[in-house]
Design goal:
Blueprint lengths: L1 H18 L4 H22 L5 E2 L2 E2 H24 L4 H14 L3 H22 L5 H6 L5 E6 L2 E6 L8 E4 L8 E12 L10 E3 L4 E2 L4 E13 L5 H14 L7 H4 L1 H19 L2 H11 L2 H20 L2 E3 L2 H8 L3 E5 H5 L5 E7 L5 H12 L5 H12 L9 E5 L3 E6 L2 E6 L1 H6 L6 H12 L3 E7 L2 E9 L6 H10 L4 E5 L4 H10 L4 E3 L4 H13 L4 E5 L5 H6 L2 E5 L5 H6 L2 E3 L6 H35 L5 H20 L5
Parallel strand pairs: 11-18, 11-20, 18-19, 20-21, 21-22
Antiparallel strand pairs: 1-2, 3-4, 5-9, 6-7, 6-8, 6-9, 10-22, 12-17, 13-14, 14-15, 15-16, 16-17
Helix pairs in contact: 1-7, 2-3, 2-5, 3-4, 3-5, 4-5, 4-10, 5-11, 5-24, 9-10, 10-23, 10-24, 11-23, 11-24, 12-23, 14-15, 23-24
Length: 634
């Protein structure tokens, strides 16, 4: 399975590499071209090195800067039939060189290269989610044949094979339990914060972990057919469907290029002046416009990063500004994902500290996350554990223990009922009310009587409610909670944070379906989560947002935006920053086009020469950069 999953990841990486026009090598080339061209232009302008081996320095600069642009333009036409702006710039550079305007050609090439490089840097992002998903699968599996155990490579497991999984081991494939009992942490697949108790007939998923006990399973699904394999495939498909937004200038290229050529030819035919025609081509080169988007994007992303918001690309800004629906995962997003002891209610004269000491001592051997909540509370209060002399887990119910002559039960209501321990109406009412509020109840019985009730709850993240209300003010019309926990727990949490729409008992595929459902309703959907099981939904949503501090690496890699400090209050800030960046981009585009239009008129009248036209580009570019830089101050 591991090899098959890694093959999927490798194929995905290959596809992305093939579609990437600029890699690390491309950036190094850009740095060299920009540095070389700049040095040569300064050397020529200062008359320190006007010629090299009898060739004008500006011509050498134009060739160094222009060749990569011309080459890329030819490649784009040959491979994709793409008449991008690179074609227009190439024509202007070649025409300028042809009439001896080397300085103008070099300046245009330099500005074009800088603009392209800035855009590529802001749009690129690392996508290693698929590889990390593959790494969830264990390399080995313990197969049982004719009563003999032996280890084999996990990818060799076939449907129908019988496997043994011991405590602390990952389950290699999907299967059905046929023997044994175990507590299985299924958060990677189901999103359920509480580990599942699995026994005969229970279904288990590949990539999940046996935290306590051991089980024998019969493999039902292997390789790409497992739940984990489905998650990998969903992430791959969702990411493949997310084509980067085309740059505004490229959307106009279909008519922009022929229009500029037509105007240049008309000016030449009307005036008979070849220089005017070439000047029109230089003026028409949208260098300032090329800088409009990447500079604003770079500034906005930089400012957001300082606030602990990682935005993984320029196209994300546009999508964030259009959001109207946000879907929240519960555990680890709305809540902290760290259950803690909320309350201890004591009966029959027992004191709180006595009950906590006994509970912590009994839970000391357990790896259950509820046990950790009890132990952490006891340690925090410096309470010495009362450890039992006899300890026996009851899968799915709790623990039976003995200390000296006392008999203890620690567990849920099912354990009490199975041991014929009576629960009073007052205790039952308290239990029901606590569960209604989303808490887990643990009973402590001593010698046949309930003497304590422990209430354990996953705390709601600070600022969750304020964030939801702030999002509504930012024109987010729908806030929805998706959770693998029980619907009652989700609804209880939803009420506390003002989320009225809650969908519970969900698997990763269900979360993806809800994302698709809201998208079909015409909503622009963001999904925010922190778990591996959230990765497919994060990738499928218009915008995926991950909790960076507590979130898993896979969720972080699958997301478009990462909240590095896990501060939900940064969500409204992200939307505000994105919308301001979009306004800035449009301002840049308007300014650059107005400058170009005026320059075209002056060039056609013969009032603007090639070198002056190139200088106009510099002025327009400076204005665009300064306008974009305003985003850094907010």
């Amino acid at each position: 399975m591991e090899d098959e999953c890694r093959l999927i990841a490798k194929e995905e990486a290959t596809e992305q590499f093939e579609h990437m026009e600029h890699g690390a090598g491309g950036h190094i080339r850009d740095y060299i071209v920009i540095a070389s061209t700049s040095i040569l232009l300064v050397s020529s302008w200062s008359q320190w090195l006007p010629q090299i081996f009898g060739i004008e320095t500006t011509l050498i600069a134009a060739i160094i800067g222009g060749v990569p642009i011309v080459k890329e333009a030819i490649t784009a036409i040959y491979k994709r039939g793409d008449t991008r702006v690179g074609l227009l710039v190439s024509i202007a550079i070649i025409a300028s060189i042809a009439i001896g305007e080397y300085l103008a050609a070099a300046e245009v090439a330099l500005i074009m290269t800088i603009g392209e490089m800035l855009e590529h840097i802001t749009l690129e992002k690392s996508n290693t989610a698929l590889k990390k998903l593959a790494e969830l699968s264990p390399l080995q599996a313990r197969i049982i044949e004719d009563g003999i155990e032996r280890e084999i490579a996990a990818e060799l497991v076939r449907t129908g094979d019988k496997l043994l999984i011991k405590p602390g081991e990952k389950i290699p494939v999907d299967g059905i339990v046929v023997s044994g009992q175990a507590t299985v942490d299924q958060a990677t697949i189901t999103g359920e914060s509480i580990p599942a108790e699995c026994r005969n007939g229970a279904s288990v998923f590949g990539g999940t972990i046996v935290t306590m006990g051991s089980i024998e399973i019969v493999a039902t699904k292997v390789g790409q057919d497992t739940a984990l394999g489905h998650i990998i495939r969903m992430v791959k498909e969702a990411q493949a469907n997310k084509a980067p937004s085309a740059r505004i200038i490229d959307r106009w290229a279909n008519w922009f290029v022929p229009l500029s050529l037509a105007i240049a030819v008309l000016v030449y035919l009307a005036t008979g002046d070849l220089v005017r025609g070439v000047t029109i081509l230089i003026v028409f080169c949208p260098c300032a416009m090329l800088l409009s988007t990447p500079t604003a994007v770079a500034a906005a992303i930089g400012a957001a990063a300082r606030r602990g918001i990682l935005i993984k690309g320029g196209e994300i800004l546009e999508k964030v500004g259009a959001l109207d629906t946000i879907l929240f995962d519960k555990t680890g997003t709305i809540t902290l994902g760290k259950p803690s002891l909320k309350e201890i209610r004591s009966y029959n004269g027992w004191k709180r500290n006595e009950l906590l000491a006994i509970a912590a001592g009994i839970e000391k051997r357990s790896e259950h996350h509820l046990a950790k909540a009890i132990i952490e509370e006891a340690q925090k209060e410096n309470i010495s554990f009362v450890e039992p002399s006899y300890w026996e887990p009851v899968i799915g119910q709790g623990i039976i223990a003995e200390k000296d002559s006392d008999h203890f039960l620690l567990g849920n209501q099912f354990l009490m009922e199975s041991q014929n321990i009576g629960i009073t109406s007052e205790q039952q009412a308290y239990c029901s009310e606590s569960q209604r509020l989303g808490a887990t109840v643990v009973f402590i019985a001593v010698n046949g009587m309930i003497n304590g009730i422990l209430t354990i709850q996953d705390p709601i993240r600070t600022g969750s409610k304020e964030t939801i209300n702030s999002l509504k003010r930012e024109k987010i019309t729908k806030t929805v909670m998706l959770t693998g926990d029980a619907s009652a727990v989700g609804e209880a949490v939803g009420k506390q944070v003002d989320i009225s729409i809650v969908h519970g008992d969900l698997l990763p595929t269900d979360k993806v379906k809800y994302v698709e459902t809201y998208q079909r309703l015409g909503c622009n959907v963001a999904m925010i989560g922190d778990g591996i099981n959230d990765a497919p939904a994060l990738a499928k949503a218009n915008i995926g947002i991950a909790m960076g501090y507590s979130g898993t690496d896979i969720a972080i890699e699958a997301a478009d935006i990462v909240l590095l400090s896990d501060d939900l209050k940064k969500l409204p800030q992200t939307i505000q920053k994105s919308r301001k960046a979009i306004r800035t981009i449009w301002q840049n585009i308007v300014v650059s086009n107005v400058i170009n239009f005026v320059a075209i008129v002056l060039a056609a009248l013969g009032l603007l020469g090639p070198v002056a036209a190139a200088i106009v580009h510099n002025v327009g570019s400076i204005l665009v950069v300064l306008n974009s830089a305003r985003l850094l101050r907010n």
